[in-house]
Amino acid sequence: MRMFDYARAADEADAASRGQAEGAKFIAGGTNLLDLMKLEIEAPEVLVDISRLAMTEVAETADGSLSIGALVPNADLAANALVRARYPMLSRALLAGASPQLRNKATTGGNLLQRTRCVYFYEPASACNKRKPGSGCPAIDGFNRNCAVLGTSDACIAAHPSDMAVAMRALDAVVSVRGADGAKRDIAMADFHLEPGDTPQIETVLEPGDLITHVTLPPATSARQTYRKVRDRASYAFALVSIGASLSVQDGKIAAARIAFGGIGTVPWRDAEVEAMLVGEAPSAALFGMAADRLLADATGHGHNDFKIALTRRLMVGTLSALAEGKLGEEVQA
Ligand SMILES: Cc1cc2nc3c(=O)[nH]c(=O)nc-3n(C[C@H](O)[C@H](O)[C@H](O)COP(=O)(O)OP(=O)(O)OC[C@H]3O[C@@H](n4cnc5c(N)ncnc54)[C@H](O)[C@@H]3O)c2cc1C
Ligand code: SF4
Predict the structure, then answer these.
(1) How high is the pLDDT of residue 235?
(2) CB-CB neighbours of 83 under 10 Å
(3) Cα separations (Å) of 59 from 35, 63, 72, 130, 180?
(4) Best probe residue, ligand 2, of 116, 120, 141, 302 (max atoms within 8 Å of C-beta)
(5) Strand bridging mode 211-217 / 66-69
(6) Going by CA atoms, what residue is nearest to atom 52 of ligand 1?
(7) Any idea which ligand is nearest the CA of 49?
(8) Contact criterion met (CB below 8 Å) for 259 and 244
(9) Which of 62, 169, 220, 239 has a CA positioned 20 to 30 A from the CA of residue 160?
(10) pLDDT of residue 325
């Protein structure tokens, strides 16, 4: 491991100011960053420790939204009574991730910024456009079982690895950031992560020194919600395909649908057109199948991950059918 300086941030302003220095990096739970530093994939010159800052509260706001501090551990967020009652999809997504020990350390902000699990990204001896821009993408013609089928480019096909972010995407979360100049701004989850395009090394819209302070979930709406994850092992494995879904059925017709996916996209994946084609229709496997076909119309497999396309269709149809029939998930009372 390379030498680096360590500084513990005194408060948010101190963190944001230290974070803008050349080569500075925040550390929260450290469950992703330290692994990357050991492999020298990340080599910060200054590690700014934000883990003792007071961004640890989960609180209801005046308008009924839920504000989640950036340092709330994944385990605490999953167990929070308000999250379990109003956003059960999020609680389930968090519990589907990693292991109990990791969830105790992993934080809300760090989870959003965790990096891909593409095997070539973690192998410093191999080329990788995300790790070393311009060096190539061996995953495209190589081992790509865990890579994405949507949002890919000629430069990178890595899947976004987070479970939590999928639920937050479906729930229309908003990420709040404090910039190095002290200015605060809000970023919709829909705009937060970037597809790879020609610059796969740039993964979010954050600027150097931007500190995530909290994430806000809009007020809960009446619906039935769940999160399901298909993976190679029953625990301690990243998603091959996952779905976070919320469905409201009134008088036999779908009144609202929010559906996001993990494992298939280069970013947490959601498609507004797919949701729109469900609203006002009577739920049926045929309808959900047509919606899945729309979702996957532009999906491209690269060999080892071709199976994800058929798997996503089955997972989507099965999950939405079971939600509509009240056989899966939890009812949210707004
Ligand atoms: C073995 C293993 C299995 C796992 N399985 C899963 C899984 O199944 N599903 C899943 O979703 N995840 C999984 N994870 C990933 C885990 O959820 C992440 O490592 C964790 O959420 C990262 O949070 P952290 O606080 O430890 O981040 P850190 O490692 O501290 O930081 C990660 C990144 O976020 C930045 N950062 C952290 N906080 C802030 C902030 N407030 N503002 C700005 N930047 C910030 C850091 O600079 C760094 O770049 C797994 C991890 C491991 C090691
Ligand atoms: S898919 Fe992306 S992360 Fe994986 S090798 Fe290609 S460029 Fe690197």
Answers:
(1) 84
(2) 23
(3) 32, 11, 11, 36, 25
(4) 120
(5) antiparallel
(6) 98
(7) 1
(8) yes
(9) 220
(10) 97
In tens, the pLDDT along 195-217 reads 999 999 999 999 999 999 999 99
pTM here is 0.98
Q: Which single residue is written with the structure tokens 């994405």?
A: 148
CB of 97 closer than 6 A to ligand 1? yes
Name the residue with tokens 């020194």: 209
CB-side neighbour CA atoms (13 Å) of 212: 31
Q: How far apart are CA 103 and CA 73, in angstroms?
A: 7
For residue 18, give the ligand nearest its CA: 1
* Whether pLDDT at 1 is above 70: no
Q: Whose CA is nearest to atom 8 of ligand 2?
A: 128
Neighbouring C-alpha atoms within 13 Å toward the C-beta of 313: 16
